[in-house]
Write a structure and sequence with these properties.
The complex is a heterodimer of chains A (about 260) and B (about 325). Chain A is built from eleven helices and no strands. Chain A has about 260 residues and is an all-alpha fold. Chain A has one domain. Chain B has 13 helices and 14 strands. Classes of the chains: A mainly alpha (about 260), B alpha/beta (about 325). Chains A and B meet through helix 1, helix 5 and helix 11 of A and helix 2 and helix 3 of B.
């Protein structure tokens, strides 16, 4: 465990020793802010229309504004996460530091989990930045905190899925660019895989919807923690990390 | 301390290391010599647990590198061919990270890092980024990394590659200092390095051990006879005949001639030191003895004769391969 944290700390440090950490956090904050402003404006206009027509009560800020806002965050994940994970193994292999890690008294699992936690911490930081906007909503309105909490849990888990895929792809190459592009491609595929659903039979629809990382987020955004989605995310992450471990191990045998 | 038994490593169809066996005793420096691509790095990577062997077994500090990798790695320091530095860390941060992953206890960690930095002389660049280090400092930081957890065994892959002559000497001296506390294997293709630093040499070629002995014995054994170089001022007379008559001399050949000074190569049966007799013969002949020294076959020549095919036959007849199995495999 201590070794895992040492690696995680090293990973996190390296994000901020290079511009990557700042670029990811910076663009995340900028784009999240842009989504926020857009959604808020939409919400304000809708609220005014409702009151103009003499509607009683206020509109649900969770439903009208926050749910689409947080669903849009998945797009940011799609674009930003390859930048975070692409170097994790590829760079170590290119610079030869992988020899240091693999000849240190560490297990492969400790190294992989360390890298995973490092990247996940960066994603958590990005999500942390976005909480400032949520805090502003709480200052001026009465949103419900529970759906927000579940949505953030969902975002964190979804980020974990992307990271586990990113680590796997990064462990397959020593070229960061290839790792980044391939990761992006796979993310995109996982994102659009359910699009075929409405044009196909129920079987294909079911399978593709189940595979789609984004579909499983919908319930989290609604404020529901459904164990089936939780299990999906957790097993997705575990499977990704397992394959990464196999990839690192096979690299060893092949030399 | 290190025991390698019938180690074989195949990459697909390519056999990088073929049935290598050797031992290194505690506190010894073993030179691992071979041309590029001979299998040095592969062997070292197996010993450090970086990759598994296809066949055979390696025991480091009492632990099998395959069955108990963590224990073996705890006791091994490894400097790969390119020092594994993180460019975005300062030397101090880097050593702190390595110390943590190598399991140096938190209590004495700072002190240990300070000591190691002093020892390999990187203290003056402690706060510089690894990416900004010169080649010499990179190599030393790499060495510091290998030493940080005070391992029993040090495995150094070409530790002096790319250094300037002064740094090479410093590094060699440092390695010699380290022997005793540590058991060291160092690989190199630079031959003087071996004769200067190592107590024992394993020469490998095409994945096989072709010779294993002390640098001195290797050169002596390969020759099979002793050769002396004698330079005589014989006033123009031919001293060869006189030298030839000294008992024990098998052959005399003129090597060079400069004005009145003539140099001869005098061969004798091995085990006979004829220097006194030769000196007496020359002096009693009334000539001037200008130079008299044993001629060593340089390690370069030994190496070339061992690693090129034509000479391999000659080697076997001279029985310089201590590993008798060589002949049976070939």
């Amino acid at each position: 465990m201590r070794n895992t944290l040492t690696i995680a700390h090293k990973e996190l440090r390296s994000y901020f020793a290079s511009p990557i950490g700042y670029i990811v956090l910076g663009f995340f904050a900028l784009l999240y802010g842009w989504f926020y402003v857009t959604m808020l404006s939409y919400f304000v206009r809708q609220s005014m229309q409702v009151s103009q027509f003499g509607g009683a009560g206020t509109m649900n800020v969770n439903l009208v504004m926050l749910r689409p806002l947080l669903q849009n965050v998945t797009i940011l994940l799609l674009f930003l996460m390859p930048m975070v994970t692409m170097r994790s193994y590829a760079e170590e292999k290119r610079s030869g530091t992988i020899e240091l890690l693999l000849t240190s008294p560490l297990t492969d699992l400790e190294i992989i989990l360390g890298k995973f936690l490092g990247a996940l911490s960066l994603w958590a930081m990005a999500l942390g930045v976005s909480l400032i906007h949520i805090a502003i909503l709480f200052a001026y309105g009465q949103p419900e905190w529970k759906p927000i909490a579940t949505a953030y849990l969902g975002l964190l888990l979804m980020g974990g899925c992307f990271i586990s895929v990113g680590l796997l792809i990064s462990s397959l190459t020593s070229n960061q660019i290839i790792a980044g592009m391939a990761t992006f491609g796979v993310f995109l595929l996982l994102w659009v895989v359910n699009w075929i659903g409405s044009f196909s039979g129920p079987t294909v629809d079911g399978v593709t919807r189940y595979l789609s990382i984004v579909d499983h987020f919908d319930d989290f955004a609604k404020g529901i923690i459904d164990t089936s989605h939780l299990i999906y995310y957790v097993s997705f992450i575990s499977f990704g990390l397992f394959l990464t471990a196999k990839s690192v191990d096979s690299e060893r045998w092949r030399g | 301390m290190i025991e390698v038994q019938h180690l074989t490593k195949r990459y697909g169809r390519v056999t990088a290391v073929n049935d290598i066996s050797f031992r290194v005793e505690r506190g010894e420096i073993l030179g691992f010599l071979g041309p590029n691509g001979a299998g040095k790095t592969t062997t070292m990577r197996i010993l450090t647990g970086y990759m598994p062997a296809t066949e055979g077994k390696a025991v480091v500090a009492g632990f099998d590198v395959f069955d108990q990798p963590i224990e073996a790695k705890r006791r091994t320091g490894y400097l790969p061919e390119t020092p594994p530095l993180y460019p975005d860390m300062t030397v101090k941060e880097y050593l702190d990270f390595v110390a943590k992953v190598k399991g140096v206890p938190a209590a004495g960690r700072r002190e240990r890092i300070r000591q190691v930095m002093e020892r390999v002389r990187v203290a003056d660049v402690a706060d510089r980024l690894c990416s900004k280090l010169s080649k010499g400092y990179r190599q030393r930081a790499g060495l510091a990394q290998a030493l940080i957890h005070n391992p029993d065994v040090l495995i150094l892959d070409e530790p002096t590659a790319g250094l300037d002559p002064k740094q090479i000497i410093e590094t060699r001296n440092l390695i010699k200092e380290l022997a005793g506390d540590h058991t060291i294997i160092l690989s190199t293709h630079i031959l003087p390095e071996v004769s200067q630093t190592c107590e024992r040499v394993v020469i490998i070629n095409k994945g096989r051990v072709v010779a294993e002995d002390t640098p001195h014995n290797l050169t002596a054994r390969l020759r099979g006879s002793e050769t002396l170089y004698v330079q005589v001022d014989a006033n123009g007379a031919d001293a060869a005949g006189t030298l030839q008559r000294v008992p024990g001399v098998t052959r005399v050949a003129e090597a060079d001639r400069r004005d009145r000074a003539v140099g001869y190569e005098v061969q004798s049966e091995s085990g006979h030191d004829l220097r006194r007799d030769l000196a007496r013969a020359i002096v009693s002949g009334g000539w001037g003895l200008l130079e008299l020294r044993p001629m060593h076959l340089s390690l370069e020549e030994v190496f070339l004769s061992l690693t090129t095919d034509e000479a391999a036959g000659g080697l076997e007849s001279a029985e310089t391969t201590p590993a008798g199995e060589e002949a049976t495999h070939a």
